[in-house]
Structure of Antibiotic biosynthesis monooxygenase:
Amino acid sequence: MFIAMNRFRVATGSEAEFERMWTSRDSHLHTVPGFVEFALLKGPAREDHTLYASHTTWRSRADFEAWTRSEAFRMAHRGAGGTKPLHLGPPEFEGFEAVQVLPRPAAD
């Protein structure tokens, strides 16, 4: 399992527009082999920004890397940065290989 995260420092007052941008776009992720799930996470608010993270789970690092080279990736990111900047600086990417995963046991 591979988890890909991008952290965004969203400018104070731009949170609703940032969330609307993410929730209204077609990510095309459902068409990509190895995709498991996506979550947009909202974190703590600071004086000048609120922290957000896009969190995508993949079957493997190779599946994630294939996504970044795919037409689906280009379509999902078309127009990114085409509007006024909603976040402070570029997103910060973090990628993680799973060392241990403990699924919830099935109910008896």
Summary: The helical segments are 15-24, 61-68, 71-76.
